[in-house]
Design goal:
The longest helix has 21 residues. This protein is an alpha/beta fold. A six-stranded parallel β-sheet has the order 2-1-3-4-5-6. A six-stranded parallel β-sheet has the order 9-8-7-10-11-12, with helices on both faces. The protein is globular. Helix 1 crosses helix 14, helix 4 packs parallel to helix 6 and helix 7 packs across helix 12.
């Protein structure tokens, strides 16, 4: 059985909440499904130290590992773990793997810290600690990581410093294949679903709420965290209407909402930071066969258009016109749903793991 190393400098969650916890959990399971024995370097600093010691001993005894796949958090490892006793443990581990000619692939989650919104949403004292650590981690990756995986190709332009094009590629989230029991509804009724952030300026949903207000036979179920909604509900109040329902469901409760929906609504104001983002919820909805309505000018919109799994629009008027057209011609929606179901098979977590393995095993072949 082939063996790979999965590096994740946090504990794995049995019931992951949100994309940052879900992704490593799903990727680990996908590597196992692909047929790999997964050697974990994960958990607390003490747990990672013990795992690294065991790993080095196995290598000394002749064990051969095909590659390392690393999923660090979006914040500096030392900050996330409050782990001042092990600040360079993980960088030293990646260096050792590189020196052992074990190909190292790393998923670089985002570059939030490079944008003004990070400055606006964090204190000066936090930035004085975190930004130097971000740079130190990045410089370590430049030296010890063989291949960088990004949420989208577009993110490469926002990296802290240039990265060789031959050594990076996109690795967006994956999906699980689920059934969707929603059928064509009488009288052109359309039920939209959105789940995700609602805080401004990053996740401003006023364009979608504006478009839906007053549409006959159209509903939107908007799912978000309760504390977030309490902070922003006064901002959204002028855009609310009876056909918009606010819910606060958790991940295990979302299946029913996806299954009842006809469309996934991701129409919001475009923020520069989000132009290259690939939201986990786009792929979650893809797994349920839900066509997506999103905003033009983002990496997600380009993927949705390329795959034929939805529509990208640029204004509330275009949103309204699209929805009215789908109400009048339900066969268009049915056709999109068929395309979405077909596309979902190309975007499973298993396919993401296969992409990583193929890329890094090929890297080893090139080195050897």
């Amino acid at each position: 059985m082939p063996i790979m190393i999965f590096h994740h400098p946090l504990p794995f969650k049995d019931n992951p909440q949100g994309g940052s916890q879900l992704r490593p959990y799903k990727m680990k399971a996908a590597f196992e499904e692909l047929g790999y024995e997964v050697f974990l370097v994960a958990g607390t600093g003490g747990e990672r130290t013990k795992a690294i010691r065991t790993l080095k001993e196995r290598v000394r005894q002749g064990a051969r590992f095909d590659f390392v796949y690393s999923e660090p958090p979006s914040a500096p490892i030392a900050v996330v773990n409050h782990d001042v006793l092990h600040p360079w443990l993980d960088m030293g581990f990646l260096r050792w793997c590189h020196q052992q000619a074990i190909p190292v692939g790393l998923f670089y989650r985002d570059v939030y810290w490079r944008f003004d919104v990070y400055k606006q949403n964090s204190t000066l004292s936090k930035r004085l600690i975190s930004i130097p650590l971000f740079w130190l981690e990045w410089l370590s990756y430049r030296r010890w990581v063989d291949h960088l995986f990004l949420p989208s190709q577009e993110m490469a332009a926002a990296l802290p410093s240039p990265w060789p094009p031959a050594r990076y590629s996109d690795l967006p989230p994956g999906c699980e294949l689920n059934s969707n029991t929603s059928n064509a509804k009488p009288n052109g009724q359309l039920d939209l679903f959105y789940v995700g952030g609602v805080t401004t300026p990053l996740y401003d949903l006023t364009p979608m709420l504006t478009a839906i207000k007053g549409l006959v036979g159209v509903t939107l179920t908007l799912c978000c965290r309760q504390d977030e909604w309490h902070r922003v509900q006064s901002y959204y109040l002028p855009y609310m209407s009876p056909q918009i329902k606010i819910v606060h469901a958790h991940s295990s409760e979302l299946a029913d909402y996806y299954a009842r929906a006809d469309l996934f609504g991701l129409f919001r104001r475009v923020h520069p930071y989000l132009k290259f983002a690939m939201p986990v919820k786009v792929f979650e909805s893809l797994g349920y066969g839900l066509p997506i309505i999103t905003t033009t000018g983002t990496a997600a919109a380009e993927m949705i258009q390329r795959e034929g799994i939805g529509w990208s629009i640029s204004s509330p008027k275009e949103f309204r016109d699209l929805v009215l057209n789908l109400q009048a011609q339900p066969d268009q929606l049915l056709h999109k749903r068929q395309l979405t179901a077909q596309a979902s098979k190309r975007h499973t977590w298993l396919e993401r793991a296969r992409t990583v393995a193929d890329t890094l095993v090929n890297n080893r072949s090139n080195v050897n």
